[in-house]
Amino acid sequence: MNKTEIYILSGFLGSGKTTLLKQLLTEEKKQNRKIAVMMNELGKVSIDSDAVDEDIPLKELLDGCICCTIQDKLESQLQGLLVIDKPDAIYIEATGAAHPVEVLDAVLSPLFADRIEVKGIISVVDGKRWLDRYTLSPQVQQLLIEQIRHADLILLNKTDELTDGEQSKLTMEIQALNSHAFSILTTFAKVPIQQIRKLSTSIKTDKAQTHVSTDLKLSTFVYQFKYSIEQMEFESFLRRLPDTIYRIKGYVKFHSSRFPSLFQYSYGMPIYMKENMNMPLNMVFIGENIDWMKIEEELRSLETKKS
What we know:
six-stranded mixed β-sheet; seven-stranded parallel β-sheet; 13 strands; Rossmann fold; 9 helices; hydrolase; P-loop_NTPase; Hypothetical Protein Yjia, Chain: A,domain 2; GTP-binding protein; 2 domains; alpha/beta; globular; CobW-likC_sf; hydrolase activity
């Protein structure tokens, strides 16, 4: 089964995300690829939806951030696109206030995590705003840093407004924050579509025995349970996890239960919610600098321990 590619467009308000999206959609259309778009706005009205042609499936997520208040809505609309439209790729334009880890967490629903391939997080940086960032609040400064630190591709945008010296300073500061992402100096967010297509966030499922980089880089792992497991053994596994696993969510079935439980884990805190029907036993992990092969081995060992 072909997986749908997911591209997340990140970056602070006014950095050039919608300009980038319009250009990418034009290029995708030239290559006859079936594309869908999800746009998230904090307000009740969509400002940029006219940037998307009418023949492209568009889902608008309004009046909230996909990181937190409208995660459920994102999940249902994304599933609708996957089932009904079956696109080759979906571009998700997050709000300028969105944290990349939270967006990735919202997108990777255990209901369909095995049907999508998150190709990467593309962060657009307003060069002048970055160089003048100390005039912004500490919270906004930190958000700008997080949007850069977790990116797989960084567009240093609006560089026509900068001197050569400022461009050099911008490049050095961004690369010091994230040396693993490819950085491009851009004007009007122009980037070759080939640069977008070759992105990879080192995402892996337990069916694909591929090497996963353990560099300091945000990555995810989808594990598909085949059997029920012992709850105490699972909780012992959780206690051994490194601090750089930020999120876990999915469905797990314990020996003592008839149906699976929905499991959520954030900053070391586990939460279980019992289901009353069978659900796909997919579990999604998001972390940084993680040896996913080791995590997979531990999960497989839990499944070999029968009740």
